[in-house]
Every structure is written in C-alpha cells, then in structure tokens.
Amino acid sequence: MNRRAAVSLFTLAVSALAFPTDAIASSSLQKTVKVNGTVLSRPYGVVTSDGSQQTTFMPIWYVGKALEAAGFTQSWDGKSHTWTLTTATDGDFSEIPVGSGSASIVINGKLVKKVNTVVKKDPAAGANAQPTVYMPIYYIEQIFQAAGIQTSWNGVTWSITSGATNPVVFGFVTNYGGSTDSLTDLEANPIVTEFSTFTHSITASGGLEGTRFTQAGTYAQQNGLAAYITVTNMNSTTGDFDGTLATQILSDATKRQALLNNMVSLVQGTPFAGINIDFEMLPTSSRSLFSSFITDLANALHAAGKQLSVDVPAVTNASSAYNYATIGTASDEVMVMAYDYSYPGGPAGAIAPVGWVQQVMSYTTTQIPPDKVLLGLPVYGYDWANGQTTALTLTQVNKLISENNITPKWDSQAEEPYFTYTASGATHTVYYENAQSIEDKLQLAKQDNLRGVALWRIGLEDNEVWAPLQQYADGN
C-alpha cells in the first residue's frame, strides 16, 4: 500500500446513491472548473436541495477530472468512488462534521462525511445521455481544503490551486497463458502509476472475448492506481489486428451498440478505471466510423463514472483512419505508439528514431492537448536475419551481447544502439532500446509537457531503463 516515502494515501469511497432524476426539482446551468487558473471544463451543474439546503451538484466524471488535475487518482466501481491523494503531509479531516446522507465518504477506513447525491442525465452528453451520478461540490471542497489544497466556489466557478503533479508512467501488463510475470514486474517497479491489462478482443457480433485480470485490478485498487482493460481488434483465428473486422462491426448499428454496451459492462462494478482501446490497422475509409464510436463510447463510460484511454499509431499528418483531434477531445488520454518505425518483415533499422518521434509529437500536440498525451516507448529489440525478424526482450539482448562478446554501436542519427553478429552462417542486425535511448525520448516528453509516457510492455525491459524513468517520474 505504501509505495513512496513520505507519501500519504487518502482513499475516499462514496457509496449509495440518492435523489433519482424524477424525484428532484432542479435546474441545470453550465459552470466552470479551473485548475491553477486554467479552464479544465464547463460542466452542467444541478442546483437542488441536498436534504437541508440548496447547493450545486456536478457530474462525478468532471469532479473526478478536477481531482486528477489536483493530484488524485480516482476510479468508480458503481458502488464506491475511490479517490487517492498523494501528499507529503496528512490532511486533518477531524473538523469536518459527518452529518447525514445516503452516501458515505470514507478516508483511510474512517467515515468522514455523509452526503446525498443526485442521479440524472448530463445535458452535455447529448441525446444519447445515460443517467450519471452528481456530487455536491460544497462538501468535496471541504475535503480539498482539509487535504491542504486551495479551492473556492462562488456558485459559478470552482477554482482549485495545487502544486504541479509529476508525469504519468503508464505500462501495459499481460496475462498470457495465465502468467502473472508481467504483474509481478509491475509490482517491483512502483513508479508505474497507471496500467492496462492486455486481455480482451472483439468478436464479429460485437461481443468481447477474454478474461478480466482480477488480480491486477485488486492490486490497482489496493495501491491507488488507475488500471484499464485493453480491448483490441485482434482476430482470434489469425492472431493479427483485423481492420476489416472492426469496420464491419462499427458500420452495423446493432453490432456497434452491442460492442459499446459490452465494453461499459466489462468495467462497471469493478476496480478498473475504464477501457483502453487498441484498434490497429484500420482502413482510412473507417475514419468517421471510428471517431464517432470513440465519442459515443467516451460518453457512455463517463456516465458510468469510468474513463477512456485510446491507443493510436504514430502519424505526422491527418491522412489516416485516426482523427487525432476528435479522439483527443472525447477520450481522457491518448497513447501514441511512437515505435516500430522499423518493423518485423521490413529492413533492419531503428525502432523509434528520435527525429521521427519528434516529428510525430510535433503533429500530435497540434491536435491533442499535451496533458492528455502519453508518448509510447518501446522497451524491446528486434533481430533481423535472412528476411526474418525476431522480437527480443532487453534481457535477451543483453545475453546476446555477453555470449557473443559484442561491443554495441550507437546510431547517432537515430539515437539508438545496435549491433551485428553471425550465427549459423547468417548475419544478424539487432536494434534495441537502452537507458540512453529511453532518456533521449523522455526529454521530448518533458519538452512538450506531455501527460506522461507509456511502456510496451511491462516485462520486456531490463533493470537499466528504470533509472531514467525514475528521474522522469520524479519530475527531474
């Protein structure tokens, strides 16, 4: 539970909903949420009675985003809304009267506040809006203040002032064959603050196949981490990403709705923070279909108190199936897969040359707010020989170097290490990442003030790459 020195974890669980939409008299007016002087959102607030007096309630999703901007990690499992604040000092919540209400706010196992909530549709979600939970701002403001975060509410604008938060280090966790090795590696490296379990894929009917990695979800809940479930368009027969399969589903209204509903159901009532979408190899013709689906999925997840993370291929212009601007507007974070510049089956070369990554980020940050962008980092290598390509973990790369007494070279243009060796009469060329090449790309993430970085994947890296990642996570 205690992942950092001099860090306190405040866990707030909100349960039991009150005041269904048809049982309250309320008015919805647009409000403003500001964090450190910058407008974060303009949600609709509901002005209604909390049981004793008139007060303003806001959709729980917007409240959660404000908390995240102030340094909290939060998730909603349908019964409890859990917020985690990391701070160097403990908050003093003893002065907050517990009061009465149908929902309980519990901090570190202690009941601090009871409040009433509102359930109604969010006007901002449009015609297809689903009922969502609204939280009373006044009492959340009290908790902020007790935690040492400056906040004010004047009935129109909610202003929050907090110190700068450190960047996110996100990792993908696998469960191949039931193995927990990737999760064990995650547990050994607590600088990873968000992760996604790579466990599910779509079916032709709009269904999902896969099994929740419940052990990972429990770990996230116990340690205050945001954990997602990745859903891909991998074809179970071929094992490859199938753009045609995804397009067929998204172009069929019934299958599309089934897929959307299944994704929401997958995370509803669980510790998982939301869904991570990894639909690859989509044809350009499906650009509008995919954009529309992402927008509708985001609205549905947000209504359920969950979040949407989307993986997109690295591009430098708008001529692809992935509308960066639309995806960035709808989703909570976007992971740009800035790797595989040189790929299996192609010519040997750098996996993520820094000049190309810089071009990708230059385009990305004109389309998506930098504070939503995760720069994807590869932590693996490729071995090319005789027209074949083998993926290598960095530990396997190090073993090759040692066994063959190799002195790696440095590609100064790509800023990436490589070497060649001969085996069974064939010349092999290996490009890979190391601590220096990762550090060079972390500098780009710093320069662009990105939300953070994402590692593909946990378990492929070696111990050396964690040093620059630790410095980055610490804000250095």
Automatic annotation (TrEMBL):
It holds the Pfam family Glyco_hydro_18. GO terms for molecular function: chitin binding; hydrolase activity. GO terms for biological process: carbohydrate metabolic process. The keyword Lipid biosynthesis does not apply. Keywords: Hydrolase. PANTHER family: CHITINASE DOMAIN-CONTAINING PROTEIN 1, CHITINASE DOMAIN-CONTAINING PROTEIN 1 FAMILY MEMBER. This is Glycosyl hydrolase family 18 protein.
